[in-house]
Design goal:
The protein is of the alpha/beta class. It folds into three domains: about 60 residues, 434 Repressor (Amino-terminal Domain) (Orthogonal Bundle); about 130 residues, Response regulator (Rossmann fold, 3-Layer(aba) Sandwich); about 150 residues, Response regulator (Rossmann fold, 3-Layer(aba) Sandwich), CATH 3.40.50.2300. It is about 40% helix and about 15% strand. The strands form two sheets. The chain has a six-stranded parallel sheet with strand order 2-1-3-4-5-11. A six-stranded mixed sheet has the order 7-6-8-9-10-12, with helices on both faces. Strand 1, helix 4 and strand 2 form a beta-alpha-beta unit. Helix 1 packs across helix 2, helix 1 crosses helix 3 and helix 4 crosses helix 11. The protein is elongated and about 85 Å long. It starts with 8 loop residues before the first helix and ends with a helix. The N terminus is likely disordered.
Amino acid sequence: MDPSYDGAMSRRLADVARKVGVSEATVSRVLNDKPGVSEQTRAAVLSALDVLGYERPTKLRGERARLVGLVLPELQNPIFPAFAEVVGGALAQQGYTPVLCTQTAGGITEAEYVDLLLTQQVSGIVFAGGLYAQRSASHEHYGRLDRLNLPVVLINASIDELPFPRVSCDDEVAVEQALTHLTSLGHTRIGLVLGPVDHVPSERKLNAARTLGARLGIEVPDRWVARSAYSLESGQASATRLLREGVTAIACASDPLALGAIRAARRAGLRVPEDVSIVGYDDSAFMNCTEPPLTTVRQPIDAMGRAAIDLLVQQIAGSGTAADELLFEPELVVRGSTAPAPAELPSAILAAH
């Protein structure tokens, strides 16, 4: 019997028996693969297990469907549709079909999507931008996947406790590229717009910024670090606060945050890049079409997405895959949103500072 049935077996037997209209003893015989049950009843019991969201015992699962779950936090940030396109194409080449699961505010949670995917007997799951990166979030659904030995790959940094392979863009290198570029332009008052305090990629970016700042002789004080919810509106609010602190450049943890920072600068009466320089992160779609075109740090999403599927397929095939992190190096793309630091603080900054 699958270990996941321990403890709640009696309730599950009752639920399934009620659903099918048979006795709990009959359900038990099916789950234990015992004789004396018609094929029609056996099929009905197994179907009820799937519908109710209970895992089948291992010996009754049969061959998993050639489906792979792709769980994304949103589609508004263009980086996630880009990952979906790469991952979907790589899966198709391997003979698998992606099942796209996208979260919305107040909608199905990541854990609930895991339940749904398990009922579909997916061969594995790829997560991008999920709760695995937040220390204070619930990680029980990941533990469940680990106990079931389901192949899983995480895209971008996660908490260390999770035993899954990870494919990540190197956050330290990304920050080094952005800050080295800004300091080469004469900026010393550089603000950061990052994700939540417990967000692992943001932790890495902040630590890297402070290490590099110490080496370059520039400050990265707490008042120049703003936390955000990874949306354009959140970027605007965060950047507005940083501009009041007198920064002349802002490095952001995503492109939508950077677009919000540009809007904040303009609403404060500042020009980008003459008064304030802005750097994004991702190089998602159309960032070369913004006004001004956005300087950003490009994630190698094609290589990362393909590597994630290679790791997943290796697990599906039964090859042991270590729970290591595969780091990919980003690339600074210089466009029109950065320029030399102003000789003196603009009057709009001075007025707010």
